[in-house]
Known about the structure:
Layout: H1 2-21, E1 24-26, E2 36-38, E3 46-48, E4 57-59, H2 61-67
Antiparallel strand pairs: 1-4, 2-3
Bound molecules: zinc ion.
Amino acid sequence: MGTLVIIGLIAVGGYFVSLWVHPFHRCRVCKGTPGRHWGSVYTYSFRRCRACGGTGRQDRLGRKIFFNGS
Length: 70
Ligand SMILES: [Zn+2]
């Protein structure tokens, strides 16, 4: 039983370290293009992606929960 607790703590600790080192994931909407939403008619035109604000990245779920965003 104690071994399971230790493994669990290591897994949780590793996840927190991962959140600290890599707090973002690629934006799902613009796929990190970066932050561009391309026009479908005038394909040379684009606007800033609304989901990520033009950064092409979004906070990871754990980052929002445990660190209140970046
Ligand atoms: Zn985006």
